[in-house]
Design brief:
The complex is a heterodimer of chains A (476) and B (1136). Chain A contains 18 helices and nine strands. Chain A starts with a helix and ends in a 6-residue tail after the last helix. In chain A, helix 4 (38-52) packs antiparallel against helix 6 (90-114), helix 7 packs antiparallel against helix 8 (177-197) and helix 9 packs antiparallel against helix 10 (243-256). Chain A has helices at 2-12, 17-20, 31-34, 38-52, 66-70, 90-114, 125-148, 177-197, 226-239, 243-256, 289-296, 310-315, 322-325, 362-373, 378-390, 407-421, 428-434, 465-470; strands at 29-30, 159-162, 174-176, 280-285, 328-331, 336-339, 356-361, 439-441, 451-453. With 476 residues, chain A is mainly alpha-helical. The longest helix of chain A has 25 residues, at 90-114. In chain B, 14% of the residues lie in helices and 45% in strands. Chain B has 20 helices and 55 strands. In chain B, the strands form twelve sheets. Chain B has a 22-stranded antiparallel beta barrel. Chain B is globular and about 120 Å long. The chains are: A mainly alpha (476), B mainly beta (1136). Strand 1 (29-30) of chain A pairs antiparallel with strand 38 of chain B, so a sheet runs across the interface.
């Protein structure tokens, strides 16, 4: 008690009262405290990745969830004619928007202060952290643009989405598609520079350890590493139609990256590598993946579009394709074909093959490069396609790629490979959108035709009502 | 030892008993010393001793026997110091100037009073009577004459009669008595009539705000003071309940759901609402209080509502309600909802006083608001609705089952099952005493408060020790340590509404006298299904659930130490302060028995639970909360009276630190209901994590106040407070508050004084700004939470919970008030006050575009106004020395108006509208409730519903009015308009206080006029009732059945399965006026004569009844989850 009186006297004696008023919570962390330590910044970054791995976005919906349904890769389609405002679809879409921007807010909370706190870090880890955070911001905004704005070509000046670059209670104005792309690329440029400057460990080859705990630079494939930035650039440039740049970055990853083709022996045995780990440029670690897998892929909804195998063989023309042979499973009882990509081996058996949801992979780089070469260098396209298919178990000499194929046919090859390569990884829908396909393959039980007619509006998600009402959306 | 008759009489006085015993002991030794001495010289020492005992001493010291009549000498006290004098001289000295004479005859000395004419007061005689403020005679009052050694006491009738040497020698007579204010009266030679006022009355003359003490007459603020006895006179349930009857500004909102549950805290509103309570985000943390609740200050430190509710009323000295800014501004950022200051009794000097109080509370459940169908009527209803018919017209097998039960005479009175009559006890024992230096007091209290639902209780134990030390009258230290424990139990019988819902044709026990668990029927094939042919939602016997051993208990242990000092540095300068530390640990346990009907049976059959699930039955949840509060303040006060100027100024500072932490876990897998400790659990819940949260706030303040009065006529008050709080945003760390008050004591003006009948006339006006902080401890900050359930590549992460607001500040309330206090003819007291409270910078969530990362963030916006008046009147209607009749009444009016709201509230309104009209099952529950809406220009208590034109007699459908006033058959949420307001136009209390000799009577009525209520019973139990359950009898009698019926209610069920829900319609909005006899109490002070043989100083009986009569214009079920109780109590309080 005396002590307390003493405290009163001292405080009244004009010691710093405002310090006393700063209480430190014990069960939560104050941002002001987090940004004063290296561990704090790292925890904030891990938090962002954990948010990305949430079921509502890349943990499910944007990789093997509804986005694949919209691409008609499953027999499940959320709504028959893409009426996104339907009661069953609307909450999913709103949650995507909300969770992605929430992740961006968390990400910006790092970026707001990292610059001035680099001295907390050793060995350039600060630069790597900033680079990853920038890449993440670009990645998220790019995907938001792909979902909530019309296809890029021809819509460059359309008002799209806000690009949020700071952590503050400020309404960011919605900007045009080209402005968003500019900012995406600017963030990626800066990330590239920082990661390269800090000598991202992935530049000296892939390293894997059982767990990246307490080792900030371990397991670069689970993070936005240097090659992820390059690969993302390739994806972005292709989306906006800048094929030269897209080719440049895709070839950079192919030629200089440390990614190796998976071998068939990795795909068999007790713990098959179903995500082709050695080819993954960037992936997310989704700790609850086994729970999600057992709850989603046991339902018929997630089976191939027709549910009876015809579609499967129609796409995977050769039964030897690893992606058909090892990544598809046929539930005989219900006669349905389902992806088992995410039925990953239980922990501890082999390093880093469980709880992995890919975001960017080597195969996509081959396909980007192949597509970019169609008009300028078709031979190269054929070479790239054949190389990819060689490593997918195709036995025939031409690997199903005819030497005589014209441009349209080559594009069809690329599209088909893309469907196989990124099946249940959420990229097919965006490919159709980019190409503004007016019909897509479908064998839906609710649709009799082999293809489904698409309209441009089907490719654009509506903004959440709250965003329309409270957001700062200029008239375009 | 021989005792004369007189002496025996003397012995009867219990106060003297101990003194007498001591004296006897003393004299015994004296006798040894002097009795054998043959020479008649004695020594004697008496200090303010009763004359009788002094004479006894002489008798003991000599061989003489002294004869005297006790009545003649009892008023006299003697102080003499005699050494070696003759017996005669000793007697002479003892008699002194008193009107007595003596005669010596042999060994007898007889003492007689000098005869005088009693009819007239002689000049040299001082006589009269001393009474207390109720006109009761006061025996034993000490009377001292100035410059005289003559002293005396009053007799048992309060009379005194003295001989005085000469009238001129006496100028003043002083009357003193423990517990009363000492009076010095100018002696004019006439018979004196003295009215002594209890010391406790001094409270009425000062206003203690907990920090500053004001002189009531020169204070301009609006503060009402109630004594402990005032509170007890209107009921003994708890302080808050009594306050609400004494002062209409304290409004206990009716909780028609929780009724008389002893474990539900009352919801208090002080002059309307100044926050949007109930609105989601504002109050998500359980650590926070109701944002509209007043601030509670107990002996100088902040405390909780439950601490006040559980406080033993016998320990309360006074309660002060600080209403306006001038009174409350000293509490700055916490004062906007009013401040209730409770002061507990301080130990008094003197001999050991033991007082014991017992109160027995009888509670009887009041089920009179329920009007349910009996078994036969229920069957009749089903007949009429055709509910037992299958779609193909055949009879459902259930019909036979029901008929069989009804034929057997089953008509279960379910409502009577979970209730009981109870008796609760309150014991309180207080000891206090000490001398002018050191005083002590010990309080012990124990109270049981069993509720009318079987098994629900709230038991309260407490012990407190008070010590005070007065050093040279200049420095006073006080310490009060108290330890309290509260044990509360919820009824295992669950929710009372379950008993109102279950059909009365279900029997409780089966043929084997075993409790039914569920009510199944069996079809021809032997398959089980419920009474309606469904296999889900099988009715459960609520008594079965009550028998399985579910538990829900809460235990609080709190320790508080409060140390204070008061140093009178100079007569005009005081320095005081206090430090208080309190710790509360509470432990909430809930146990769901493995036998609970909520778990499916494990029968091994398909569809029943698996062995694995069976092993996880039973659920034990423990939540422990630890609260630590430390608070201290110091204050320097200067006051000076120079001529006609009177000024007081004070300044001080305070610091407080409050921290609360919660820990909890859930364990599952119990074998048996008797094994309800976590030791028997098989493990934790699957995927469950321990719960843990924390809140920490600090407040540092500086305050100052000044009061100036000129000639006791013109008054001025100023107070200022600067609060710094850890809850404010970093850019808004300190908040200034202030108040100004002006007053005019008109009654001190000579022109009023001339009138002669005006005892009091004060006009006052005050203005000030105060605040309230009704947000979470860390709301202003960017707080991160650990992602405990997910890791990234082995690493734990942190995620933002919400976007903080560095500019977040307190909610500001500007208070304007003016009022008057009038006292006339010593008989009539009247006071009125008008107020206007404008709340700005309301802390509200703003809806943000989700692209900001969050749906909303907390900011200061929104405006609300509360205006109103309060009137109180008290009249001494009839007065004789032994009978006093007081009449009192009060009226209050409050009007609330929302001036502006945030976008989030608009979003909330939209949600309310959509929920109101929604037909989805998930919203079904909501449709029954009338959801609160907030609209600019309306009040927070407005009722929104679609206007109804009634039930069309031809179709039985309801006809509505659209917003524009066009009739329509369809209900649309957009057509909702304000159709009423739950806030009444006027509300208050009236009643009478009658005292007649030792008997005291109080009756208090509460009334409310001009408000509306949305009758939930009609909606829930009549129209939206689940016809598969029991319903209100109006379903049978008042609903539309066929074309031409003029009915008040529509028949919502027409076919077996189809039900059309009724949404908020003005048909259910009724004028809600009520008159309630809230409290009726008698107190009887036993006459001294009767109790002195019991060695008692005083004995008071009391009888109290509360909520006896309730007349209301709205017929609805009250106490849906917990029934109301009628209660009465018998109490006694004895002082030894």
């Amino acid at each position: 008690m005396k002590k307390f009186i003493y405290i009163i006297l001292i405080s009244i004696g004009l010691t710093s009262c405002s310090d006393w008023l700063n209480v430190s919570p014990s069960t939560e962390k104050d941002r002001e405290d987090l940004i004063t330590t290296e561990a704090g910044f790292k925890e904030m970054l891990y938090g962002c990745y954990i948010n990305m791995a949430d079921e509502s976005i890349y943990g499910h919906q944007l990789t093997y969830g509804s986005i694949e349904g919209f691409a008609k890769n499953y027999c499940w389609s959320l709504s028959a004619n893409y009426s996104y405002t339907d009661n069953s679809v609307r909450p999913i879409i709103d949650a995507i928007w909300t969770k992605m921007y929430n992740t961006i807010a968390n990400d910006n909370s790092i970026l707001n202060d990292i610059e001035s706190h680099k001295t907390l870090f050793s060995k350039g880890e600060g630069d790597i952290l900033e680079g990853e955070a920038l890449a993440m911001r670009a990645f998220l905004h790019f995907d938001l643009l792909r979902m909530f704005a019309p296809a890029y070509t021809g819509n460059e000046s359309k008002i799209a989405i806000p690009y949020v670059e700071s952590y503050e209670s400020k309404r960011y104005s919605h900007i045009s598609e080209s402005q968003v792309i500019k900012k995406v690329l600017a963030d990626l440029d800066k990330a590239e520079m920082l990661l390269k400057g800090a000598n991202d460990p992935i530049l000296s080859g892939i390293t894997r350890v059982l767990s990246g705990k307490d080792n900030f630079l371990a397991n670069r494939q689970y993070r936005f590493n240097y090659w992820a930035v390059e690969a993302l650039k390739a994806r972005v440039y292709l989306y906006v139609g800048d094929k030269d740049s897209a080719l440049k970055y895709a070839m950079d990853v192919i030629n200089n990256g440390p990614f190796k083709w998976v071998s068939e022996s990795d795909l068999t045995g007790d713990h098959p590598d179903r995500v082709f780990m050695s080819e993954i440029i960037s992936a997310l670690n989704v700790p609850k993946l086994s729970t999600y897998y057992s709850s989603y892929f046991t339902s018929e909804k997630y089976s191939l579009t027709d549910g009876y195998g015809n579609y499967g063989l129609n796409v995977f023309e050769d039964g030897n394709d690893y992606r058909y042979l090892y990544l598809m499973t046929n539930n005989k009882e219900k006669n349905k074909v389902i992806s088992c990509k995410y039925d990953q081996s239980p922990a501890g058996s082999s390093v880093l093959k469980e709880e992995t949801v890919p975001l960017l992979r080597l195969g996509e780089m081959y396909l980007i490069a192949a597509e970019c070469n169609i008009s300028s260098n078709p031979t190269e396209t054929i070479r790239l396609l054949r190389e990819l298919k060689t490593h997918r178990g195709y036995l025939s000499t031409n690997k199903g790629i005819e030497d005589t194929a014209n441009g349209t046919q080559l594009l069809e090859y690329v599209k088909k490979e893309m469907r196989k390569e990124t099946y249940a990884e959420g990229q097919t829908f965006f490919m159709y959108k980019r190409l503004q396909a007016n019909s897509i393959p479908s064998f839906s039980p609710w649709w009799s035709g082999a293809t489904y007619p698409m309209q441009p509006g089907y490719y654009t998600f509506p903004l959440p009502e709250a965003e329309k009402e409270y957001g700062d959306i200029p008239k375009s | 030892m021989k005792r004369s008759k007189n002496f025996k009489k003397f012995c009867r006085s219990p106060l003297r008993l101990r003194a007498l015993l001591l004296l006897q002991l003393l004299l015994f030794f004296c006798c040894c010393a002097f009795a054998q001495s043959k020479n008649e010289r004695i020594s004697l020492e008496c200090r303010n001793e009763a004359m009788s005992s002094a004479l006894k001493k002489v008798e003991q010291a000599s061989n003489y026997k002294i004869l005297f009549t006790y009545d003649e000498v009892q008023n006299y006290r003697v102080s003499v110091s005699l050494k070696n004098v003759s017996v005669e001289n000793a007697v002479k000295a003892i008699i002194g100037d008193y009107p007595l004479s003596y005669k010596i005859k042999g060994i007898f000395i007889s003492i007689h009073a000098i005869k005088k004419n009693k009819a007239a007061v002689r000049k040299n005689e001082l006589n009269g009577q001393v009474v207390d403020e109720h006109g009761e005679p006061l025996p034993g009052v000490n009377i001292t004459l100035d410059n005289s050694r003559i002293k005396g006491i009053t007799n048992e009738n309060g009379n005194f009669n003295f001989y005085i040497p000469s009238e001129e020698d006496v100028e003043y007579v002083t009357f003193s008595f423990i517990g009363f204010k000492t009076q010095k009266v100018h002696f004019k030679g006439e018979r004196m009539k003295i009215v002594m006022r209890g010391d406790i009355r001094e409270i009425g003359e000062v206003i203690v705000t907990g920090l500053v003490t004001h002189n009531a007459k020169s204070f301009t603020g609006n503060a009402t003071v109630f004594k402990g006895d005032d509170l007890k006179s209107v009921g003994r349930q708890n302080i808050i309940k009594s306050l609400s009857l004494l002062d209409p500004s304290v409004n206990l909102t009716e909780n028609t759901q929780m009724g008389s549950d002893p474990n539900t805290m009352p919801k208090i509103r002080f002059r309307g609402e100044s926050s949007f309570q109930g609105f989601e985000n504002v109050d998500k943390s359980g650590l926070m209080n109701d944002p509209n609740q007043p601030l509670f200050i107990l002996d100088g430190y902040q405390t909780t509502l439950s601490a006040i509710v559980d406080l033993d009323m016998n320990q309360v000295e006074s309660v002060t309600i600080l209403k306006d800014a001038a009174a409350g501004a000293i509490y700055g950022s916490r004062a906007a909802n009013g401040v209730i200051v409770v002061k507990t009794i301080q130990p008094k000097p003197g001999q050991l006083i033991v007082s014991y109080g017992l109160n027995m509370n009888f509670n009887l459940p009041d089920l009179s608001s329920y009007h349910l169908l009996n078994a036969k009527q229920n069957l009749e209803l089903y007949d009429r609705l055709g509910m037992y018919r299958n779609d193909d017209g055949t009879l459902a097998p259930a019909y036979n089952q029901i008929c069989r039960w009804v034929a057997q005479g089953v008509n279960t009175d379910w409502l009577a099952q979970p209730v009981r009559n109870t008796v609760g006890y309150q014991h309180s024992l207080n000891l206090s005493g000490g001398d002018s230096r050191m005083r002590y007091g010990i309080d012990l209290n124990y109270a049981t408060n069993p509720g009318v639902m079987k098994g629900s209780t709230r038991d309260n134990y407490g012990i407190g020790v008070r010590l005070s030390y007065n050093y040279s009258d200049k420095l006073l230290f006080t310490n009060h340590l108290s330890v309290g424990r509260i044990k509360s139990k919820e009824s295992p019988y669950g929710n009372f509404s379950d008993y109102a819902k279950i059909n009365s044709f279900y029997p409780i026990y089966d043929e084997n006298n075993k409790l039914y668990k569920n009510y199944y029927c069996e079809d021809e094939s032997g398959a089980l299904f419920d009474i309606w042919g469904n296999s889900s939602n099988i009715p459960v016997n609520p008594l079965y659930e009550a028998s399985v051993g579910n538990k829900n208990t809460n235990e609080d242990l709190s320790i508080n130490d409060n140390f204070s000092f008061d140093w009178l540095i100079l007569p005009s300068l005081r320095f005081n302060g206090m430090v208080s530390y309190s710790k509360t640990n509470s432990k909430a346990i809930s146990f769901l028995s493995p036998r609970s009907a909520t778990y499916p049976d494990y029968t091994g059959e398909v569809g029943s639970s698996t062995a694995e699930e069976d092993a996880l039955k039973g659920r034990y949840t423990l939540n422990q909360t630890f609260q630590d509060n430390i608070e201290g303040n110091i204050m320097l006060t200067w006051s000076k009276n120079i001529g006609k100027h009177f000024a007081t100024a004070s300044a001080g500072g305070s610091l407080s630190d409050a921290r609360s932490q919660l820990y909890g876990f859930t364990a599952v897998g119990f074998g048996d209901e008797d094994e309800s400790e976590p030791a028997y659990a098989s493990g934790y819940e699957k995927g469950g994590a321990p719960s843990n949260s924390e809140g920490h706030t600090r407040l540092a303040s500086f305050f100052a106040s000044a009061n100036y009065a000129y000639d006791n006529k013109y008054l001025f008050d100023f107070s200022y407070r600067l609060d710094g709080s850890s809850q404010f945003g970093t850019k808004q760390r300190t908040a200034p508050f202030y108040s100004l008050g002006f007053g005019w004591n008109v009654f001190n003006e000579s022109f009023i004084k001339k009138l002669g009948f005006v005892d009091m006339l004060k006009l006052r006006a005050t203005y000030g700004e105060v605040g309230s902080i009704n947000f979470n401890p860390y709301q202003a900050r960017d707080m991160y939470q650990f992602t405990k359930d997910a890791r990234y590549d082995g690493n734990i992460g942190v995620l933002l919970e919400a976007m903080g607001n560095k500019d977040l500040k307190w909610q500001n309330t500007k208070m304007y008030e003016c009022g008057a206090t009038v006292g006339l003819f010593n008989r009539l007291d009247f006071s009125m006050s008008f107020y206007n409270r404008l709340t700005t910078d309301m802390v509200l969530p703003i809806t943000t575009p989700p692209s900001m990362g969050f749906d909303s963030y907390i900011s200061n916006l929104g405006k609300m106004r509360n205006t109103g008046y309060e009137l109180t009147l008290r009249v001494l209607a009839y007065k004789t020395p032994s009978l006093n009749v007081y009449l009192f009444g009060s009226a209050t009016h409050n009007k609330n108006r929302i001036l502006s709201i945030s976008s989030a509230l608009e979003a909330y309104n939209k949600k309310v509208d959509s929920a109101d009209g929604h037909s989805d099952t998930e919203y079904k529950q909501l449709t029954h409730k009338l959801l609160t809406k907030y609209q600019e220009g309306e009040s927070t208590t407005a009722i929104y519903a679609v206007r109804s034109l009634g039930i069309d007699p031809m179709t039985g459908k309801e006809l509505f009015l659209t917003k524009e006033g066009n009739p329509t058959w369809t209900w649309n949420a957009n057509d909702k308009v304000v159709v009423g307001d739950t806030e009444p136009k006027v509300r208050g209390t009236f009643g009478t206080n009658i005292s007649w000799k030792g008997l005291y009577f109080n009756a208090t009525f509460a009334y409310s006029y001009g408000g509306q209520a949305y009758n939930n019973t009609l909606v829930d139990m009549v129209e939206n009732s689940n016809k598969y359950q029991n319903v209100d009898e109006r379903v049978l009698t008042d609903t539309w059945q066929k074309a031409g019926d003029i009915a008040r209610y529509k028949a919502n069920i027409t076919r077996r399965y189809s039900q059309e829900y009724t949404y908020a319609s003005s048909r259910f909005v009724q004028d809600y006026n009520y008159l309630q006899l809230s409290s009726l109490s008698f107190q009887y002070e036993m006459p001294k004569k009767l109790i002195s043989p019991l060695h008692m100083e005083s004995l008071r009986w009391s009888f109290n009844m509360s909520d006896i009569m309730y007349l209301s214009t709205v017929k609805r079920e009250r106490g849906t989850s917990y029934p109301y109780a009628r209660s009465f109590s018998i109490g006694l309080r004895a002082n030894f």
